[in-house]
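Quick start: what a row looks like.
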Amino acid sequence: MILLASEALEAFLAEYRGVQGRSVRATASQRNHLVATLTMVADVRGTTFDELELVNITREDLVKVLLTYRERPDQRFVTNPGAAPPERSNATMGRRISAVRTFFGWCTLTGRVYVDPAATILSPRRVEKSPEALTEIEARRLLAAASKSSWPLRDVAIVSLALGCGPRLTEIATAKLGGLEGSTSVTLTILGKGSKPRRLHLGTVPSQAMTAWLVERQAFLDAHHLKSDSLFLSSKPRRVTQASGKVTWECNFSTEGLADFFTRVTTAAGLSKPGVRAHVCRHTFATLALRSRSFDLRELQAALGHASLATMSRYLHVSDDDLAKAASQHPLSN
């Protein structure tokens, strides 16, 4: 019996999502990595993705296509190839190799192949770098730039939430109006990695910005005769044709649109530099929280939604000034 790689992939993804309970986003990521890899293997073997036989895939095939992936231009830079890095990073390669190893490990466990071709393919060592973070002055410049945008009430609400609570980009984009609770002490429940709910506690600035945005949000929906459960809206509603042929309009803020927004607002604030991207607000929240001692490590871990306390080490970088100040305050140094 011939077992096609495409059939094995669909069976794997069905179990990954339905039985293991992985999130839609994680499942989509696995699909993208594996379809791309298997398509490249099919090209190497002179066949198509739909006709590629699982048993014919070798370790050499996988290594070859992974090397090609490392050196192939990143599609995210097609409009600006000069900004593209010379090759994909170890972190990016690690995610693809992890997807490949997980898939073929499952194929071996379920008896679809007898020898795992990916078992001895090791992930590259990740170089841990201190995350880029804004200073408090730069963060205030970012807020000021948001207040001068084409939709200031929305944009200030987004930036103040990002800086004041540290949610991930996707968590902001998928935040729902129903997740908001409270009037004096405002909280926002979001879905984090693995579809795990997490409650964010909004401080004074994010709460005030959110209150102002909610009034503006409803006025926008009423003016355009729209309905949406998304907390943050796009200023340009999109026409969507359902499978039934029914036409609807959506105005939710996509993750891609939100990333573009952060690029625009950081540029407007004069903060466009290497390492500064949408995630910088999350790093800024964490770094300033630790330096001001407003959060301890456990509290910050919960606020950021990190599964492991070890992950928090990336935010523990210190400057020479920090070390000098700490040394001068040591009880035995005076």
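That is the whole record. The mean pLDDT is 86. The first helix runs from residue 5 to 18.
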